[in-house]
Structure formats: C-alpha cells, structure tokens
User: Which sequence fits this backbone?
C-alpha cells in the first residue's frame, strides 16, 4: 500500500474516535493535489480497475444468478459514513458488490437491448474527459471544447442534410446559429425538438408575446386554436409521452396513428387525422416519423411524411435515435430517404455510434430553429455570447462530444458503414435461422437489425403453420414466451428482451408476446446467434415434455 | 507502434483509394474486441492520456492566449472523414488542438466559476463506468447499479430529511418509492421537481383525468384557475425560466420577488404576491427557495418560506444545487434550517460534491411525489417494474451515481465537512483582504463561499469611501470592471467571473458590475487568493495612470 493510501487508511481507522482536522486535511490534499504519492496511488487504482474491466469485458455470461431482492439488500444502508475510506479498499468492495453483479451488456450473447461492446479508445478518452472536466455551458469553462462540439454537431448535420460548403462555412461556428443540440440522450433530444417545434408554431405575433413568454393557454387563444397535438404512430417511443406531458399538452395530446403489418405509419389515416385536427382547430405542433422503432426497427415512410408535413405547414421531426447511422452506408441510406426534409432529427450517440452512455443529439435543419428556446442569465450565457448554454435544455454539462468527434475520426464513415452493414447482415442470418426451425415463428422481418419472433411449443406447431391458432392458443403461447424470456435471463448464458406486438398477422385484438433481438454488437458472431436460439430451445424443452 | 495501430494506420493510408472490406473488418475487430493487441494499444493510449492529464492538472495558467475566433477556425471542417484514423495519431491531434487550448478550470487560480480540482479517484472510476457502460433506464441493463443508485440517492435524502431508520428500511429499495431522481445536472433536477409539483397540484379529480393526461389548459379549467405560477426571488437560477417555458407556463409564469441587501427573498412581498395570486385565481405550483444563489451564494430564509408554503398549501422547492453540502458541516448546517421541510431539493454532484460534470439530483421528501410523472413502455419500464426509467425525465443514462457513492464513502461526511469549512474560511480571508485594500470595494459579504467586489480606480476612491458616487461614476466604474475582468481572462494567469448586481447599497436603479469569486477548489491557497487580487491591481494600473 502506498504512503497516501496508508495515510487515508489511518484517518479512516482513527475514526472510531475522532480523526483530527489535520489528518483530514492531509487526506484531502492527497486526494485533490497532483503529487508523487497521488500519482502512485492513481496508478495502483488504475491497474486494479483495468484488470476488473478486462475481466468484465471477457465474461460472456450475462449475469450472476443472484435475485434482485437479495442484491437490493446489499444496498440497504442509507447513512453516509462519517469517516473516510481508503480508495483501494473501496474499489475492492465495489468489485465484490457492484462489478460482480453488473449486467454484461457488452457480451456478444446479450442481444436483447440496444447495447454493445464499445471501441476501446472511449475508455482511454474518458480519462481525458474527466481530467479536463470542461463545462460546456459556457466558453469561459470550455474554451476549446465549445467550438469542438459545434464541429462534431455540424458533421452529423451534414451527414443528414448535405448542405453546401458555403452553408457550413457560414453556420458551423456562428454564435447565433444552432445546427444541433448535444444532450445526454435521445429523450432529451426529442424533448428539445418538440420544445423548439411548439415554440416556433405558437410564436410571437404583433399582438402576442409568444408561448415562451405567455405560456400555452394564452398561446392557443392568441393563435386561435382549441388545443395542440403531436402526431406519430402507435410505435412512437415513450419519450414522446414524457415530452407531451412536460410541454403541457398531456399525453392526450399525443395522437397515435395505426401502423401496417410492417410497423409503418398508415399515411391515409394520418391525412384523415390531420383533417380532423384542422376541423377541430387543434394546432399540430409536429409530425413525428420513426427511423426505426424501438420495438422492431420499422422505418416510417419519411418522404411521404415530409410531404404531408409540408402540406400541413407543420414541423416534421424524425426520431432516428436508433436508425440514424444507416446514413453511413451507401447501400442502405436510401431506407431513410426523406430524412433530409425533417426540421429536426434525433440521433443517439450511445446507440449505433458506439459511444458511452450519456450521448444524444438533435440536429436542426434550419439554424434559427432553436432561437425560440433561448434563455440568458447575467453571470453566464449573456445575450449574443458564444455560450452553448443559451440554447439547450441542460445547463452545466460534460464535453462528451469528445467521444463523438473521436469516433467519427477514428472509425470514419467507412468504418461505420461496415458496422451497420454487418449488423444488418447478422439480422438476416438470424431471420433465416428462425425461419428454418419449426420451433420458432418469425413475427417481424428485420427492416434494420432488430428482429422479433417467438417460440411455438410442439403441440401448437401444426396449427401455427396452418394459420389456425385461436386467441386462447395465442394467450397460452404468450405466457410460455414470457416465462422463456425470464428463464433465459435467469440462466445467465444469453439474453433477449421481449415486447407485446399489436401489428402482427394475428391482428390488433391479440397482442403477441415476442422475443426481441437487437443485433448491433460487432463482437456478436453467427455462432453466438446460434447459441442464443439453442439456449431457448433447451429452456423450452420442459414445455414440450 | 503496436501491431493493431499499425493495421489501422495501413487502413487509413490505404484509403486514398478504397480500403478493402477485410481490412476495415480487421480494424473494427481490433477496436472492439479484447485481445493482446488491443490491450497493448489501450495501454499505449492510456500512458499518453495520463501524461496529458497530469500536465493539464499541473498547469496553473488559465488559458492560452489564442482568441476565440482563431480557435474556432481550427474546427471549421464539417465533413466526416471517409477513412479511419489511427488512435495514437488522433490523440496527438487532440493534444494539440483541444487539450492545449482547454480552460484549466481546476487551476487554484481559476476562481470565477463553480469549478474545482477533483479527487483523483473519479478519473480511475471513470474507466470502470465506461467499461461496464450500464444503462440505468432499466434493471435488465443495470442489475447492480440500479439498487446501488437508489442507495446513493437515499443517503443524500437522509442527509437532508433525517427520517427514521424504519422509513429508509421501507423505501430505500421499494420499487414504488422515489426518494430522489438522479439526473445529468441541476437544471434537469429543477425541471423534474417542478414537473412533479405541477402534476401533483393539478392532479386527477373525480371529473378530470389529470394534467399529465389532459394538459395544462384543461387542468386549469378543471381546477378552477385562471393561470399557474412559480414564485421565487429575483436571484433565482435561470434554469427556472427554462422550466417555466418548458412546462407551458411561459416565463411570465415565473414571479420574481425582490430581495433585501443580503440577496434574500423579502417575505412580506412574497406574502403579498401570494394573496394577489389567490385573488386572481392563479395556481401557485411551487415556491422556490435559493440555497444559495448562483451570483452571491445568498441563502433565502428557508424556514420562513416553508411556513408560507405550508400556509399556502403549495409545493416548496429548494434549489441547493450549490449550497446543499453545507449540511455536511455540524457548524454551518444551521444556515439551511428549514430545508428539511422542502418537498423537493436540488443538489448538484458536479459542484460541491466534487464529482465530474454530469451529475445532479433532486431529492423528494415524500416517496410518492414522483408518481405523477410515471411513464411506461411495452419493451422496458413496464408498470410495477423496478426500472428507474419509469419516473425520470431522462431515458437511457449512465451510472454516474457510482461517483456519488464512491465520494460519499471515500471522502466521508467528515471529509466533506472539512472541505466546506475550508471553502468558507477562504472566502472570509478574501473578504478581509478586499476590505483592507483601498483599491477594492466589497459588494456582498460571503454568506457561503461566493464573494463579489469591484475595483475602484484611484480618482473615485474618496467619493466611494464617503458614499458619494454618482450614477455616472458608477457607470464609468462598471465599464472599467468589465474590461478588467476580460483583461484578466486574456492575461491567462488567473480568472474571476463577473455579474451585474441590483441589490447593492446603490439601489436597484444602478446595476453594479461585480467581480465574482467562487472559493470551492481545495487546492486554492491564501497565496493564490492574494495573487488573484495582485493580478487585478496590476492590470488596473493603466486606468490609474
């Protein structure tokens, strides 16, 4: 044990009585100041963490088998300890109570959620991020990272909107322009987009100071509306319910249009709803397109939506939190055709850009869109300043755009192209494997790299193949698939998620419990995919026994 | 150069033409998979980053002298490179363009904002956080970190509310209870608190489905109100303007009550405003207390506010983003007396808890307060589930509560007590130094560890001492202090911020430009404080020449 940690240990043990102020000050000096002792301690801690992380990343099992209740009991003390702990001892404790029982979301066989292994350089750069600890709320605390983040956001803007060199030369670093807002995740990106949309539609007039000043009830009256709505499909992400509530519309203000068997919004139904809104003098704040849906990766007809939004003269938002990176692929980017007509687009960094958790963004076609949410303060983000905090929901926030910039440069467009194409290839591999086996029924074709299917116990296979399953049959099969998913998680060798689908061939009356696989992890092989299915068949044996 | 980086370099250079799919796949394998080559590369990168961070932390200068425009030019390319870059080369580029020009916010002489040096273990734990990359939206992707975060939040709850052991035993891990919401920063914490407050006040009745369902306009009608307001002082943080806009009230719905010379809300004026709101049938969603204000660290009379809020039967929120950690000090916690009566309290982790940027929380006295913002989805956060994403503004988010837990344990309550007491001691030291020198005028006494003062050029010193400054004099002195603050930043040796104060002895008619010092960095010494003043006197010499 190094000198500094020894000193901290002494303070800690001392503390049965009262550690002296001097010993506490010395401990704090060792924690906060760069010194030879601190360097030695930091190295010691890092070696331990590096080993822990490596072991964690090499584990393909998903979980230990400890149940949630027993695990929760380990974390049942609510008292902040009076006395300090030594860093190494605390890391050991973390290793045992937290790391050992954490979910191996980067395992090649954890294919149930939108998680993945990450490129190693984000771990390295994480230290730089925390070491510099810049605060992006204002230039005074992020001199280089502020323009650096603007550049990263502009790169993503260009990927979507493909404006001219002149356009980017003008706006990329112009204080008054906002090509996008970097946030902690897709939900805040969607909320930010809808906030902009609402405030632009219900903006200032000659006789009204704007919704940002006078609020929603007054804005509706001033603009002659009876209410305000957001329109998307039934498969819209639940963050839009948060947004509708937060923005004062209530979830009633989120109108959900039915989808077809492919999970895409029905355009005729959308047109009809728009007409009804007009008739009722409901203000349409925005039309939302999915690219793709969280449940099945379905992509709405974006060009069709864009056309309808233009006709309806309303904001068009695309939630491409998941699917945005299709744009890296020359082959597949046409799946998102029309996205370039969106007024705003959400893309998550911590999904298919393979960045650490805590990175999302909304890109804005028109650099003036965010002007309606601008806020100022006397001590920071003064009017006319280059401070990024003027036009963002968050205040103080980290420079995680460092990860985004690094990944765009190190992986490059071609690297991302290969990543996305490989993911789609693996999804087709799984779809084929499911189709080939009697035990399974493919529920949705993989439009991207998300697949849903279910297990059919032997006694129902004939009826299933003949399309003769009754509602009661489906309900029984549902229960079995629910248990199967839970058993697979508990077994700990592999993991898929589950959802209830209402747009299958069985019709809306019979929601079908589906096993859901997301294939985005570059380390997942065909062998891993086979193993996931094999585990399911094995676990299901009991039902067929 | 290691084998892997060499391979990536080849792919990169190759790319003048077309790197082959095979070489790209190999590059991706090296980036995403744990392997001997990757381990060697990661180590190489880490050594470089460790050296960069150490150099950064040892630099006491604030900035390079490059101007914002020239720096922005370095980040003016908006095209995502087609081809990959080698990690080491990219880090070198970062070192030159970003790290070299970043702000040394952890410097002991950067005392202008709420930034500080951090304890070294957060850099170490950052690697674990990113390595495990858990997603706190749901237990399936954060099996151990979900209950672990609940524990950290409960510890902070107990620090404020001091409930019984039985209370914490019941609620700490109970799925339906929410003792607090961990978010990316204070703004989201304030927004979350106000969202809860709004939805609780305008909740469901026998004949109304609740604001979360039917929206604000309908809620006001159902509850018989003509509008809704938030009430705080004129020194309220600007995040409340974001919140008022976002929640549909408009910033008009944020009523600001005047403050006394100490920057505290005037209670008689508050009572009068409440009466007026009642008379106008305006719904008071919440009364906000500051602890302390961003500009001067002033603390509102919280017990008085609590009493008024109880009488008015409204939600009482305390924004203790900055001042919350006073509670660690046996000596100073009485400054926050009354905070335990707040319905919700915001505390920032990345301020006086010394955690990395991206950590805030709102603590909720009543574990049911957040039930009114609950949202669900079929694929995650199903009703009744233990998933933390049910009752949070954010969706997918990182396990940064790891930093909070670690700091509470490693630093301990006594460690934090010493930190806060040292900060307050240094603020008094600076106040004394300012008072002792003719060149300065102390504008606000340090209630906590934030101090405002200004430079008085020689020709005005007599009038200033005699209280004879005219408005024109003050305007001239304002301009000089503005320039002085900018010059000090540009000189790069030390940094204070500035603000405009309206509650000085000069009265509201004459906003006074103040130099603002925040003393929270444990590495700042009395010598550093002297140097900050000496730099200012030196820079100001030209005005007195």
Assistant:
């Amino acid at each position: 044990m190094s000198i500094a940690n020894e000193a901290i240990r002494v303070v800690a043990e001392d503390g049965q009585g009262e550690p002296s102020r001097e010993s506490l000050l010395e401990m704090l000096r060792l924690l906060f100041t760069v010194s030879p002792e601190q360097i030695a301690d930091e190295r010691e801690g890092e070696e331990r963490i590096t080993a822990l992380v490596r072991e964690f990343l090499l584990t393909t099992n998903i979980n230990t088998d400890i149940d949630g209740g027993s695990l929760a009991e380990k974390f049942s003390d609510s008292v902040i300890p009076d006395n300090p702990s030594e860093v190494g001892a605390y890391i050991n404790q973390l290793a045992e109570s937290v790391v050992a029982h954490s979910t191996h979301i980067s395992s090649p066989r954890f294919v149930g959620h939108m998680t993945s292994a990450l490129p190693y350089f984000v771990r390295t750069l994480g230290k730089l991020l925390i070491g510099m600890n810049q605060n992006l709320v204002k230039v005074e605390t992020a001199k280089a990272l502020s323009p650096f983040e603007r550049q990263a956001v502009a790169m993503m803007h260009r990927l979507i909107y493909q404006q001219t060199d002149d356009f980017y030369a003008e706006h990329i670093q112009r204080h008054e322009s906002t090509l996008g807002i970097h946030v902690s995740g897709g939900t805040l990106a969607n909320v930010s987009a809808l906030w902009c949309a609402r405030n632009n539609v219900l903006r200032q007039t000659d006789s009204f100071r704007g919704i940002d000043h006078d609020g929603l009830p007054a804005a509706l009256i001033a603009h002659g509306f009876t209410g305000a709505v957001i329109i998307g499909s039934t498969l819209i992400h639940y963050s839009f319910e948060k947004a509708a509530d937060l923005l004062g519309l209530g979830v009633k203000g989120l109108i959900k249009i039915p989808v077809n068997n492919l999970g895409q919004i029905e355009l005729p139904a959308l047109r009809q709803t728009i007409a009804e809104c007009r008739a009722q003098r409901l203000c349409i704040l925005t039309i939302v397109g999915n690219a793709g849906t969280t449940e099945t990766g379905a992509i709405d007809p974006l060009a069709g939506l864009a056309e309808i939004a233009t006709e309806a003269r309303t904001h068009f938002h695309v939630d491409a939190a998941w699917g945005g990176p299709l744009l890296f692929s020359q082959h597949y980017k046409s799946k998102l055709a029309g996205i370039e007509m969106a007024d705003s687009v959400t893309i998550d960094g911590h999904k298919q850009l393979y960045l650490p958790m805590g990175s999302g963004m909304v890109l804005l076609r028109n650099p003036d869109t965010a002007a309606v949410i601008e806020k100022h303060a006397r001590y920071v983000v003064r009017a006319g300043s280059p401070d990024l905090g003027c036009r963002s929901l968050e205040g103080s926030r980290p420079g995680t755009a460092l990860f985004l910039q690094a990944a765009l440069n190190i992986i490059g467009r071609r690297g991302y192209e290969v990543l996305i194409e490989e993911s789609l290839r693996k999804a087709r591999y799984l779809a084929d494997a499911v189709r080939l086996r009697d035990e399974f029924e493919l529920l949705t074709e993989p439009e991207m790299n998300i697949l849903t299917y279910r297990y059919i116990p032997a006694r129902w296979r004939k009826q299933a193949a003949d399309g003769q399953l009754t509602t009661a049959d489906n309900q029984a099969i549902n229960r079995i698939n629910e248990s199967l998913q839970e058993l697979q998680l508990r077994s700990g060798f592999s993991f898929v998620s589950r959802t209830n689908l209402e747009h299958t061939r069985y019709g809306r009356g019979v929601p079908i419990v589906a096993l859901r696989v997301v294939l985005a992890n570059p380390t997942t092989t065909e062998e891993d995919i086979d193993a996931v299915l094999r585990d399911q068949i094995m676990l299901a044996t009991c039902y067929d026994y």
About this structure: Chain B touches chain A through 186 residues (CB under 8 Å). The radius of gyration of chain B is 26 Å.
